[in-house]
Design a protein that fits this description.
heterodimer; A: alpha+beta; B: alpha+beta; Alpha-Beta Plaits; two-stranded antiparallel ribbon; 16% helix; endonuclease (chain B)
Chain lengths: 297, 224
């Protein structure tokens, strides 16, 4: 597979309606908030998880598209077997802690991982430390997604007409009910920025096909991530800047600044409750030379 | 400034992890010379050259924020990868995130902006056609155009860094109001000595008028 030949940056907009896009473990699973601005946050790793899950669904682990970081609740017995019957003898001092001293062997392992695993090829992976070849830095980099405007988390109390244990049932003398809690955002439009380095893609073999798959994953990943907590989430815009060269032709922040997300009506008409309340505008005039912009969504 | 480069870097968040607090990451108050070098290398680097950070200007007040995320605890062992290679199948080679989950908090910096002054010297791997002037020109051209090898980051890759070249004739920007101009930042990582088995070396960082003078790598006050 030939690697991609252009540098890319992308602006990704997605929204949530009556749901929790990314809970904060520090705050009892409330939607993440930036405490200074009250804007919502979705971490980079949350988005990467959804990309991985989409690729796993779409390719069903086909050749070259296995996923290394998996979400699954079965025991991985083969992993343990892998520790036995090896043809690389463990290092006398470090055991298996370090990569084989033989750098060629180390590179071979890394290359094989990149060829077979989509997420290693895309996001990189740390395969122990010691030799640089053991750490793959992937070409695709995502920042945190931030909501365009401050969001308001609501706490919704819910009841369940059943209890978990007999003890609870006795305590309630047969009136079996428990109360629960859900945190939702009535609405939030989030904006994330991403980067794709052609130079790092050369090292992992991240190809044009992989790039198209990445775009498809971004566009469709919420369609396969429905759950009680998420509410309605949808990808709204994917704006991709392609540089003419591998090194790039313009600073990334200049490109991101050309995408403006504003309220559709300029007079303040209360809190936004749908994507129709926003207007996305790309300032094509301000685009530097050598940059082509494409709206995939 | 004929032989050095000056570059402005800024971003929403940053995490220059203190080595003594790696598990629940806590960032240093300011960018380390090591992280600054990484940003410069993201723009231009060759084995023939070696960047040295001279000065770091802190242009925004130092503020922190806490973020907790689910992370995985383990790393892939090359042994199991080798095993799968031999078997010619990826079956069973995976990390199941829900079995290897760790929730870790990170105390990270908010809204940072720095001016990095640096120069480089040629290493032993420099060929006959490598010269400081040539590489400096390449660096300046790239930084001016916003070109980079990969997107530079502020300590960790989820916090991308925006950068812009500060031209030779431009004055250094003044720090914002609210920057504590004079501060003893304590012992801080200078860089990691890769020639000596990855030994970290430290220096005593002082901020005077918003500027940290970084001692040269060989200086006596840089201690391993």
């Amino acid at each position: 597979m030939t690697a991609i030949a252009h540098r890319y940056e992308f602006v990704y907009l997605f929204d949530v309606t009556n749901g929790n896009p990314n809970g904060d473990p520090d705050a009892g699973n409330l939607p993440r908030l930036d405490p200074e601005t009250n804007r919502g946050l979705v971490t980079d790793v949350a988005l990467k998880r959804k990309i991985r899950n989409f690729v796993a669904l779409d390719k069903e682990g086909g050749p070259g598209h296995a996923i290394y970081m998996q979400e699954k609740a079965i025991l991985n017995l083969q992993h343990e077997k892998a520790w036995k019957a090896l043809d690389i003898p463990p290092d006398t001092k470090d055991g298996y802690k370090k990569l084989p001293k033989d750098e060629a062997k180390a590179r071979e392992i890394t290359a094989w991982m990149c060829t077979n695993f989509f997420d290693v090829r895309t996001f990189g992976a740390v395969m122990t430390t010691g030799i640089n070849a053991g750490q793959v830095r992937g070409p695709v980099q995502l920042g945190f997604a931030t909501s365009v405007e401050p969001v308001l988390p609501l706490e919704i109390s819910i009841t369940r007409m059943a209890v978990t244990t007999e003890k609870e049932a006795e305590a309630q003398s047969g009136d079996n009910r428990t109360m629960g809690r859900k945190h939702i955002l009535p609405y939030g439009l989030y904006r994330a920025h991403g980067f794709v380095s052609a130079k790092l893609a050369e090292r992992t073999g991240f190809s044009d096909d992989d790039l198209q798959l990445l775009w498809r994953a971004l566009i469709n990943m919420f369609e396969h991530d429905r759950s009680a907590a998420r509410g309605e989430m949808a990808a709204r815009k994917l704006i991709v800047f392609e540089h003419a060269s591998a090194m790039g032709d313009a600073p990334a922040h200049v490109l991101f600044d050309t995408v403006k997300v504003e309220r559709a009506t300029l007079e303040d008409d209360g809190p936004a409750r749908s994507f129709a309340d926003y207007r996305v505008h790309i300032d094509a005039e301000a685009l530097p030379r050598g940059i082509s912009v494409r709206e995939y969504l | 400034m004929a032989f050095g480069a000056r570059i402005l870097v800024w971003g929403e968040r940053a995490c220059f992890t203190r080595p003594e607090m790696k598990v629940e990451r806590v960032s240093y108050d300011v960018i380390t010379p090591s992280a600054a070098r990484g940003i410069l290398e993201a723009i231009h680097w060759k084995p023939a050259i070696r960047w040295h950070i001279d000065r770091i200007h802190v242009l925004k007040p130092i503020r922190f924020e806490s973020i907790r995320r689910n992370e995985v605890g383990g790393k892939l062992s090359p042994a199991s990868a080798a095993k799968a290679m031999k078997a010619g199948s990826t079956a069973g080679l995976a990390t199941f995130v829900d079995e290897d989950r760790q929730q870790r908090a990170a105390t990270v910096l908010r809204d940072v902006r720095y001016l990095i002054e640096a120069h480089f010297e040629l290493t032993s791997r420099a060929g006959p056609d490598d010269s400081v002037g040539k590489h400096l020109d390449i660096f300046n051209r790239r930084a001016r155009k916003g070109q980079c090898f990969h997107a530079p980051c502020l300590g960790v890759r989820e916090f991308p860094a925006s950068f812009a070249l500060l031209e030779d004739d431009a004055p250094a920007p003044l720090p914002d109001d609210g920057v504590e101009a004079d501060k003893d930042l304590g012992w801080m990582l200078h860089d990691i000595d890769f020639s000596d088995g990855m030994t970290p070396r430290f220096f005593r960082a002082h901020m005077h008028g918003g500027v940290i003078e970084v001692p040269p790598w060989q200086a006596g006050e840089v201690k391993a």
